[in-house]
Amino acid sequence: MAYTPCDSSQIGMNAQKNCLFPAYAGLQTLAVMCRWEDVNRIIYYHEHGETDESHSGGGEQETVTMQNKNRIKRILLKGWVNEKEEDDSDATQGDQVPSEPTHGSDDSKEEEPDSGSYARWIAIEAGGATPYADTAEEYDADSGTFTKTLTFTAPRAGAEFSSEFIEPLLRNKNGWVVVLQRKDKKGGDSAFPILGLDNGLIASEASLNYTDGENGGCYSFTLTETYAPNAEIDLWWGNYHDTQNEFNSYLKYTIDDHGGAEED
Predict the structure, then answer these.
(1) Where are the alpha helices (DSSP H) in 43-202?
(2) How far apart are the C-alpha atoms of 204 and 227, rounded to whole Å?
(3) pTM
């Protein structure tokens, strides 16, 4: 097929502009993150169905054939299941739930799940003048892999925040997985980039300048993922609206100031 400008059917094959959804830079303030070792299962997006793969922190991953390994439909954390599918091999909007209620009896199925029985996402509202400034990916020709860098400024300071968030963030040597939101809400499958899914983002720098007005006198962080085999990985459900709903579902049970789970 000959090259045709603005032909959306050729975008996946040619490095050409998407005239309907031109790309532009910038990230929204709100993101979610989880511990890399808490990722239990990855469900990939297929245009006609999906397939899944086990993911064990520090362990081997099962090799499966799929349409596009860089499109992720769902990240299931440890202790979570797809409510409508016993084998976790499928996913529908809004059906993921913690696997254990507060008590084991049938009478308790509508109760709030025990916050200690499942892994949780953590919400990040980045501070500073430009959220996630200098967050980037870089290809290393020698290793044939990618180095991914997440930078952000904490939205607040204080002793409690330091002990509950900053110190665990910096000392987790297994790394983190972060789902970001581009400011571009029409960019197709690039709207929700995922960093750290392959090998984990590990804290490489952290600094606090009490007199820095641009960062509000708060900590700034740099987390780095090295030797990642894949370039850009994105959360994707086939359209922006459904992908946004999936992102929002990760906020349903997040860690509050008391270490428990809170619901939106």
Answers:
(1) 159-161, 167-171
(2) 15
(3) 0.77
